[in-house]
Amino acid sequence: MPTPERCGAPDTTCRQTEEDFRTIHHELGHDFYSRAYAGQPPILRDSANDGFHEAIGDTIALSVTPEYLVKAGLITTAPEASGDIGLLLQSALERLAFLPFGLVVDAWRWQVFSGSVTPASYNTAWWQLREQYQGVRPARARGEELFDPGAVPANTPYARYFLSSVLQFQFHRALGKTAGCTQPLHRCSIYGNAAAGQRLRAALEMGASRPWPDALDALTGQRQMDATAMADYYAPLKAWLDEQNRGRPIGWQP
Ligand SMILES: [Zn+2]
């Protein structure tokens, strides 16, 4: 049987995945942000900081809860709450595990740009950071004849995705509160809630016309980035993992 290909490829079976669904939310977040600040003077038509631009669509995707999928007619019944750990684990492998990687990419770039790492040790420096922050080692020696950081696409700064990972949970927590959600954070959906929508829109419409803490304040009531929202979101998973890992050594020796 032929492997199903991505939609759009001619003469193939089209298979849309959950990842595609999330990616659509991410990219549309960019579009809706751009539309919201279109009334600003041209030079201020941008996000409050670049983490904001990456965070908007992902924030909306955090409202794609099982109950939302039922409302949207994509599934018939929401799974039991006992299934939440699987969902949270999948989400954490995507979002939490990204944090050290996002940091490694730009930490390496900054070392290169500052000249503290020279071409003679580009690959060594990459793997040192991978071990330091991610606890990852290559399966076999990776010498300087190789260029592993080149596997990171294009020349995109990754600090924007790192910041977005923190911001999107902060946005989600604040908007969920505005929407009156009293459930655990991972079960909150702002779908259809006008108050949350207005709060989001007010922040987006500011574009780059104010310092970013002002936009953050408008959206969350906080002026500083705050990763406790991420910890709140994954709290049930943390409790489960603590139980699974009880008595086991945790971490790695750099
Ligand atoms: Zn993006």
Quick structural overview:
The protein is built from eleven helices and no strands. The protein has helices at residues 18-36, 50-61, 66-71, 84-95, 98-114, 122-134, 159-178, 194-205, 212-220, 228-233, 235-244.
- The H/E string reads HHHHHHHHHHH
> pLDDT average, as an integer?
92
- Could you say which structural class the secondary elements and strand pairing correspond to? mainly alpha
Shape: globular
Q: What is the percentage of strand-forming residues?
A: under 5%
Radius of gyration: 21 Å
Oligomer: single chain
Identify the bound ligands. Answer: zinc ion
Number of strands: 0
Number of domains: 2
Unreliable residue stretches: 1-5
The helix fraction, in percent, is 40-55%
For the terminal residues, how far apart are their CA atoms? 46 Å
Number of helices: 11
Question: Biggest β-sheet, characterized?
Answer: none
Name its key features.
254 residues, mainly alpha, 11 helices, disordered N terminus, binds zinc ion
Describe the model.
It is a single chain. It contains 11 helices and no strands. It is an all-alpha fold. The protein folds into 2 domains: 160 residues, no CATH class; 52 residues, no CATH class. Helix 5 packs antiparallel against helix 6, helix 7 runs antiparallel to helix 8 and helix 8 packs antiparallel against helix 9. The radius of gyration is 21 Å and the shape is globular. Bound molecules: zinc ion. The site of zinc ion has 3 residues, from helix 1. The site of zinc ion (ZN) has 3 residues, from helix 1.
